[in-house]
Here is the input.
Amino acid sequence: MNIILLGLPGAGKGTQAKIIVEHLHIPHISTGDLFRKAAQERTALGLKAKAYMDTGELVPDEITIGIAEDRLAQSDCKEGFLLDGFPRNLNQAHALKSYLAASGKAIDHVIYVKVDERLLFERLTGRRVCSGCGATYHIAYQPQAVEGRCNSCGGVVIQRDDDQADTVAERLNINKALTDQLADHYKTEGSLRVIDGSKEIGDVTEQLLKIFAAP
Here is the structure.
């Protein structure tokens, strides 16, 4: 089964991706992991991607597409895959469709884990991280026993720059525009499946598994 997973930052895509790949026995292909692996292996495209990442720039579509296609050509993707973070825009979506069509394949499901932006803003700005061991907390959902201190190592718990209100708002706005375009595109193609990501993790998983169980 060939799947694309869509969702804004904080929607819980990573948690559900792990469950999907274990359930369907397919590889989880994350764009970030692809870039890092290609850079570590010093492939031509990987080195080009690294040059952009090192300066904080977005990796151009042609490089992203090339790296993704190289990964999809590997043998473990023969029976299916879960794409997370690719395609990011319509240009990449069209390239993916053409690549798959060349071998008689297509995307079976595009799953959009949808969560209201106000809830996402609360989830992201409330995150806290231990500067010592990296343990994660949330001021509302998973607070520390002693405020400002890690339960595990006693280290100082901080709010990362990425979780500051202004940064979160900008990330959500940019990602929403891109995700909405992709969702509209795949809705037109008939492959979009929208699930409510605001529910408890188990409830979200139940919605996902119903999609895969459907005839």
Remarks:
- The first helix runs from residue 13 to 24.
- Residues 22 and 28 are 9 Å apart (CA to CA).
- The chain has a mean pLDDT of 94.
- The longest strand covers residues 109-114.
